[in-house]
Amino acid sequence: MQKQQLNELNVLLIEDDKKKADILMSALDHSQYCIKHVASSGMSLLKQVEQLQPDVIIIDVESPSRDILDSLSIISHANPKPVVMFSEQEDTETINQTVKSGVSAYIAGDINPVRVRSILDTAVARFSEYQALKSELVKTKQKLSSQRVVEQAKVWLMETKSLTEKEAYHRIRKMAMDNSQKLEDVAKNILSLAQMLEKSS
Amino acid sequence: MNSTNIHNIEHNKRNISLGFMPLTDCAPLVIAHELGFFESQGLNVTLKKQYSWATMRDKLHAGVLDAAQFLAPMPIASTLGLSGPAVNVIAPMVLSQNGNGITISMALYEEIKFVHQRHHIDLPISAALLKPVIEARKKASKQTDTKLRFATVYPHSCHYYQLLTWFEQNGVNKDDVDIVIIPPASMVEALQSDDIDGFCVGGPWNAKAVRDGVGVTGATSCDIWPDMPEKVLAMKQSWQEQHPETTKALIIALQQACDWLATVANRFEAARILSRHTYLDLHLSVIAPSLIGSCLVHHQLSPRHIPSYNRFALDGNDTINKPELFHGEWLLSQMVKHQHIPAEVKLEALIDSVFRQDIYQQAFAEHDAFATPTKVTPLKSTKMVP
Fold first, then answer.
1. Which of B50, B64, B163 to mutate to test the interface with A (most CBs of A within 10 A)?
2. What is the ipTM of this complex?
3. Cis (ω within 30 of 0) for the bond into B204?
4. B170 touches chain A (CB under 8 A)
5. Residue-number span of the structural domain to which B30 is assigned
6. Which of A30, A90, B293, B369 could form an S-S bond across to B307 if both were Cys, CB 3.0 to 4.6 Å?
7. Contacts with A41 from chain B: Cβ below 8 Å
8. What is the pTM (predicted TM-score) of this model?
9. What is the CATH number of the domain that holds B126?
10. Each residue of B260-292: pLDDT tens digit?
């Protein structure tokens, strides 16, 4: 297989049937995809995913190993990957409509080289878009929760030390600067102290 | 057999594709098909064998399958959108209870015996016996990962929650153990090649590991939390609303199959049918044990007698097939406890909308004949396996 140096994406193809695998691999020859084919299932598949860190995974809809991929994002810490399914059965077109996260595309029917490549391109693009949205959401949530912690710490200081809001905020900020800590961490310390005091009183 | 339904069903769907997993507890679906219970309800059912729960789920969501055998927590997961998009999936009938087992590798079994200086370990094996092994491994090496590794079949499954309960009940911290997902058919191989130290899986895979001499079945789901739903009949809520009569007919046919499976003799016959290529394609000696209430433990020890190892029908005077709300709540509580459900999700009335006992009851309201279980007639050839 010829390799292009730039923008080459690692594809892990999971397929027990050598013939089907060959067709898919030749469809992707001379593209920016570098295909590694495995026929394993179970533990050895998990190891392969871990070692190869593929950019895309292609798997037959009917493969028992689908549950492994499905679970990776739920109970393991593996990074989510775009997964492309293929199947000879036409019903995958229908399945495709229900697919959003994790699985990014289904290839149905005959494997047409031109189509496969564009499906992979789309899947990768759609997946990165989805991941970007998701991480943005996580960041926003984090930001909100850190604001909430600081807010709570402020209220506690105001109530127990009879400070104004401004004074309370300055006190937290000063502690953060003195100890080179984040505002959020200082606020958390204050709150856990508050909790301790409340318990002992 | 009541035939009025066949006429009603003209307004509904006759041709049904029904997904099943090649496991011991797919018996009700196979029996309803083989013994003509579907047919006598006016249904033309095609059983579609699936190899992964994720595929089963996707196909049901997409309408490629009309209905399917689901792991009991799966309709809840689908409805909440825990894996993929949220789709309202209902469970109007429970197909089976129990059936899972925890099997450990021969090596781990020997290690437990060695650490505890025992020749014999009482059954069911307590996970507490693992603690010194875990500690010893922690001390042995700090760099490499030497955690005990257990496998199970799907995140939203009774197997997974039962495995965690087994650890927790016996004081094993789940962080001290690795848990991975492996398809049922690859479990025995993974155990044999020392990739995992144990697994929690349904039949016939525990029996297979024991027969092959690669594992010891230490506990069954009956030892951990008995008599909870294991597999359910699942369908999209929208599908049920479009085809209420078909749904009833499906439930009645499957109930007849479950009732037929009430006797041990019939369950042995079911094992013979399941061993066929179209279904499990495995030897009778690994399929039959759990169906006839026998838990193989160790290839050199006598099996444990566990009458409800695979249960499909009556428990005393009450049916197990009606989806009980408290069963659903129990499954939900497991999902919440193990953080599969985000804390902010509102759960009130969720089980009401998933575990649809009203639909189950409606199916029989017009069928008084089935208010009492159908008479069970064992087939002629009923040889028992040793």
1. B64
2. 0.82
3. yes
4. no
5. 6-97+228-281+311-385
6. B293
7. 183, 185-186
8. 0.82
9. 3.40.190.10
10. 999 999 999 999 999 999 999 999 999 999 999
